[in-house]
Amino acid sequence: MRPDTLRAIAKRNDYALPADLESLYSFRDFAHFIEVWILTTNALRTAEDFRQVVTDYAGEAASHGAVYLEAIFSPAERIGRGVGWDEIFSGYCDGAQEARELHGVEVRLTPDIYRGATAETAQEVVRYCAEYRDRGVVAVGLGGLEAEYPPEPYEAAFTLAAALGLGSVPHAGEAAGAPSVRGALDALQADRIRHGIRSVEDPGLVTELAGRGTVLDVCPLSNLRTGVVHSLEEHPLPRLVAAGVRCSISTDDPAMFDTDLTRDYEAAASLGVSPQAAYEAGVAGALCDQETRARLRQIGDSHDWAGLETAPAKPTPPRPQDPAPDSAAGR
Model confidence over 155-202: pLDDT tens digits? Predict the structure, then answer.
């Protein structure tokens, strides 16, 4: 959510936020980011809030050329604030439907279990994900404080997810090292890894990721803003790609990290990753139906990648403003 949208939602829910939201987004470290993320997302209370988040972001992403998104939300944290499961899931799913109708963007949903959740809560997240499969929920993720909560204790929840036909897309290898990725692969049977960049600390793991064809969803500017990498030049992305690991490019939390899809693709390009390679990795890792995958491949095959590669560099556009309330359709 861009700050103006967040303020409007907080106001209608009578939720107090600091006056200067932007100043919150200068993160000391990854743990501080999680603290601020919880503070701001607690403003979300109703199905209308959840719908608006999806639709607004889909409109922004479409302005950067996006045609397909797999979006993350964290339902159990809202349950802890007194919101009902069906209100949360129906709101996000309504937003995904509106994103397609208003912006032409296909949205699939991959709710996270938050690290620190009990085994019972984790399995409840999975069961509700399965109930909403026919409305676009395709996988279960794991997010939050990686260093404090490794993947292995959530194995039972992800085993249940697989039995119910859901994919596995945990965060790993961001704030924690290569063993975090190993745990996501072995215990959670990850279909794709969110981040995964610290796999470079284990050459054998990198070789395995390349051999498996596992896609890493890499968010260069997020990693920079949270201090996971000290400078863009030091980012592991080029080493991963050179080793044959497929890497898609994503924004993570764009408003909080002062980024957007254009900026993150430009950052990846500055590290030697072509837009075409990033797009193809995204299609390879997508957990969509085969009809949608075929359409995404057709879009990629028909795109003028060569013209894009030879086009003169353009300055990064200013960050898009929030859509007017009457045009909102939601992230």
Answer: 999 999 999 999 999 999 999 999 999 999 999 999 999 999 999 999
Contact of 51 with 97, CB cutoff 8 Å: no
Sole residue written with tokens 């279960």? 140
pLDDT of residue 169: 98
Query: Quick check: is 208 catalytic?
Result: no
What's the CA gap between 251 and 282, in Å, rounded?
13
- Pairing verdict, β 167-168 and 171-172: unpaired
Please provide residue 45's backbone torsions phi and psi, each rounded to the nearest 5 degrees: -130, -25
What is the Cα–Cα distance from 147 to 34, expressed in whole angstroms? 12
Which among 128, 173, 180 has a CA at the least distance from the CA of 154? 180
- E strands along 64-161, which residues? 68-71, 106-109, 112-114, 139-143
Cα separation, 273 vs 268, in Å, equals: 5
Instruction: Point out the catalytic residue in the list 48, 87, 98, 174.
Output: 174
Taking only the tens place, the pLDDT of each residue in 67-124 is 999 999 999 989 988 999 999 999 999 999 999 999 999 999 999 999 999 999 999 9
Whole-structure pTM value: 0.90
